Each structure stands twice: as C-alpha cells, then as structure tokens.
C-alpha cells in the first residue's frame, strides 16, 4: 500500500499500457474501417495489425503476468458467476480487486471476438489495392470466408465496445467504483482491497523481454514470412 494515498496496487503497468494501446488500436481500426473509406485503408491495416500484436502479448501475459492479469485468477465457474450477479443491485457489495466474474466474461468475449476479427483480416483483399499479408497464400474460398467473417463481425465489435463502456459507467454511477481511474493508476482504495490482494510487482523485466519477443514475432508474421504480393498490390 502507498502510505501517502491509502491505495493498493492491483493492475500492473504492462496490462494498463496494453489496455490503452489496445483500445486505441481497436477504435482506430473500427473508425477507419467503418467510415474511413479507401483513403484510410492503409491505416486500417496498420491499426488491425497492431491489435493483433497486442493480442498475442495479452494471451501470453494472461499466463505469466502478475496475479490479476492472469486468466486463472479471474475466470470462474457458473456458481460464482450466478452468486455475483445476485449481488449486482447491491450498492454496498464488496468491490473485486481484479476483474469481477461478469467482467471476466466480458474480457474473454472482447479478446476472442477481436482475435477472430484481426486474424481474418490477414487473409482478405479489397480487390483494388490493399490486401492482408497472407491473402496470396490462401485459396479464393478461404479468402471469401475470411472476408465474410471480417465484415459480419464489424458491428458486433462495435456493440461489445459500447457494452464495455456502459458497464464501466454503471459501476461509476451506480456502484461508485472508479474502475477507469484504477486502469490508469493501477491502484484502488485500500479500504476496498485487502492487503493480501494487492500485487507486489509489475514483473517489468519479464514484460520487457515479452514485448521484444512479441514485436519480433509480429514482424516475422506480418513482414518476413508472408509470400510476395501479386505485382501492383500493396500491404503495410
Ligand atoms: C476500443 C475500446 C476498448 C477496448 C477494445 C477495451 C478492451 C478491454 C479489455 C480487453 C479489458 C480487459 C483487460 C484485461 O485484459 O484484463 C478492459 C478492461 C477495462 N477497460 Fe476497456 N477497452 C476499451 C475502451 C475502454 C475505455 C474508453 C475505458 C474507459 C472509459 C475502458 C475502461 C476499462 C476498465 C476500467 C477496465 C477494467 C475493468 C475491471 O475493473 O474489471 N476501456 N478493456
């Protein structure tokens, strides 16, 4: 706990940085994809590929990161979920130090839907100038399927993000829980989080090694390994 502020650390800095970069990448990809038109397609590809790299980082961090970043620490069974849902209307129900059981489901849904969305983008083309780095490696049928998935998922992605923001607003207004502040500072008030639930470190050395490894893997996956594009077509 920080004595001066009476707060306890729950979110590590790599997870917080990851969250805001991921939000920027997804919003950027969504806006440029939905409204950017042809002029912004190049940026759509960049945002989408950034989201893919960030997802790879989050997947690994979910196994090796500090306590509240780990999937095993927040994924619960239906019994715990149901018990939590029953406490939802209670304003005085205790705050969960990390993700609550309902939020945990939201995490899995958001990560899964965006993994499918960004992975499908690798295999599609706009039939004019831009194509995903792996488009030429797959059959026309596979590219068509990837394209259908990519286009059909666009609105569900928007809806999931809107629900995410509504949930945060509900906790702020109804439950008086300042979750966004915690996702920025990493800390929650000490009177709501027991000492035993605070994290001791952000595992900085491990995070830095992982960031370098994921950046190298993403570079290989998106730039080095893909087959050459057809003449006259461009990817970024
Ligand atoms: C495109 C936009 C966004 C996406 C895709 C997104 C995605 C996510 C994901 C995946 C998590 C889980 C973090 C984890 O991996 O453990 C999360 C948590 C969180 N997000 Fe977002 N987010 C977005 C925008 C925002 C915005 C704009 C806010 C604030 C206004 C926000 C506030 C939070 C908070 C407070 C949590 C932690 C919730 C908790 O305490 O359980 N997010 N977000």
Number of domains: 1
Strand order of the largest sheet: 1-2
* Mean pLDDT across residues: 94
Instruction: Specify the number of helices.
Output: 8
State the low-pLDDT regions, or none.
none
What's the architecture, going by CATH?
Answer: Up-down Bundle
Secondary structural class: mainly alpha
Helix content: 55-70%
Please describe the biggest sheet, giving its number of strands, its sense, and whether it closes into a barrel: 2 strands, antiparallel
Describe the structure.
This protein is mostly helical and 236 residues long. It has one domain: Fumarate Reductase Cytochrome B subunit (Up-down Bundle), CATH 1.20.950. The protein is 61% helix and 3% strand. It contains 8 helices and 2 strands. The protein has helices spanning 13-35, 41-64, 71-74, 78-87, 101-121, 140-173, 179-185, 204-224; strands spanning 7-9, 187-189. Strands 1-2 form a two-stranded antiparallel ribbon. The longest helix has 34 residues, at 140-173. It is globular and about 60 Å long. The N and C termini lie far apart (45 Å). The mean pLDDT is 94. Protoporphyrin IX containing FE is lined by residues 15, 19, 22-23, 26-27, 58, 99, 103, 107, 110-111, 161, 164-165, 168, 179-180, 183.
